[in-house]
From TrEMBL:
The keyword Membrane does not apply. GO terms for biological process: cellular response to growth factor stimulus; negative regulation of apoptotic process; sphingosine biosynthetic process. This is Sphingosine kinase 1. The keyword Kinase applies. One of its GO terms (molecular function) is lipid kinase activity. Gene3D superfamilies: 2.60.200.40, Probable inorganic polyphosphate/atp-NAD kinase, domain 1. It comes from Manacus vitellinus.
Length: 212
C-alpha cells in the first residue's frame, strides 16, 4: 500500500501459517521483505522459509538470475513470469547468500544481489517517479543524472579474494549448484549465541576504522 509496508508486515506478522512467502514485484519489494525478516527476533528460523519472486516490477534482476540458474533460456516479461511460476509450482528451492552492509550512521541492511552507491543508485532513486514507464524509467533517469552529473567522494578498502600462497582453495559446497529449476531460498548467515542476535560482520573492521 505504501513504501516500507511490506517491510513492516513481514517483520510483525505471524508467518507460521504459511509454508512459503511469494512476492510478486520487482527487486525493490523483495528487498523490503528480506530486511523486514532480518529484523524479527526469530529471523534464524524465519529465513529458512522459502522465498519466491514472481517478476512484476520495472527491473526483475533476481527473477532473471533464478531463471538463468534454473537452465531456462533468457526471457523477459510474461515468459519470465511463466517460468518463475513453474519453479514455484514445482516447490523447488536452493540456498542463497545475503550481502550485509553497515553504514557509518549505524544502520544495517541486507541484500540478495548487491549494493549500489553513487551514480547507479541515483538513477534508481531519481527515476522512481517514472515508474509508470516500466524499464524505460532507467533510461530516462540515466539521461537526467548525466545532465546534472555529481561528484562522489569515497574510499575503497578490500580484502584479496584469492587464496594465500601455499594454501589450497576452499572446497566447493557439494550441495550447490542444484540444477533443473530452483526458487530462491535465503541461506541464514552464522549468528551469535544470543537469541535473536544478527550475524556479525567478522571479516571487516568497523566503519570509521582503517581496513587491513
Amino acid at each position: 500500500e505504501r513504501p516500507h509496508h511490506a517491510h513492516e508486515k513481514v517483520r510483525d506478522e505471524d508467518l507460521s501459517q504459511w509454508d512459503t512467502l511469494v512476492v510478486m514485484s520487482g527487486d525493490g519489494l523483495l528487498y523490503e521483505v528480506v530486511n523486514g525478516l532480518m529484523e524479527r527476533p526469530d529471523w534464524k528460523d524465519t529465513m529458512k522459509k522459502p522465498l519466491c519472486i514472481l517478476p512484476g516490477g520495472s527491473g526483475n534482476a533476481l527473477a532473471a538470475s533464478i531463471n538463468y540458474y534454473a537452465g531456462y533460456d533468457h526471457v523477459a516479461k510474461k515468459k519470465l513470469l511463466t517460468n518463475c511460476t513453474f519453479i514455484l509450482c514445482k516447490g523447488l528451492h536452493t540456498q542463497m547468500d545475503l550481502v550485509s552492509l553497515s553504514t557509518a550512521s549505524g544502520k544495517r541492511f541486507f541484500s540478495f544481489l548487491g549494493f549500489g552507491w553513487g551514480f547507479i543508485s541515483d538513477v534508481d532513486i531519481d527515476s522512481e517517479k517514472y515508474r509508470w514507464l516500466g524499464s524505460a524509467r532507467f533510461t530516462l533517469g540515466t539521461l537526467q543524472c548525466l545532465a546534472k552529473l555529481r561528484v562522489y567522494q569515497g574510499r575503497l578498502s578490500y580484502l584479496p579474494a584469492g587464496p594465500e600462497q601455499g594454501t589450497s582453495p576452499a572446497p566447493r559446497d557439494p550441495s550447490t549448484p542444484v540444477p533443473n529449476g530452483q526458487a530462491g531460498h535465503v541461506l541464514p548467515p552464522a549468528g551469535t549465541d544470543a537469541p535473536g542476535s544478527l550475524p556479525t560482520d567478522s571479516l571487516l573492521a568497523p566503519p570509521g576504522q582503517p581496513g587491513p
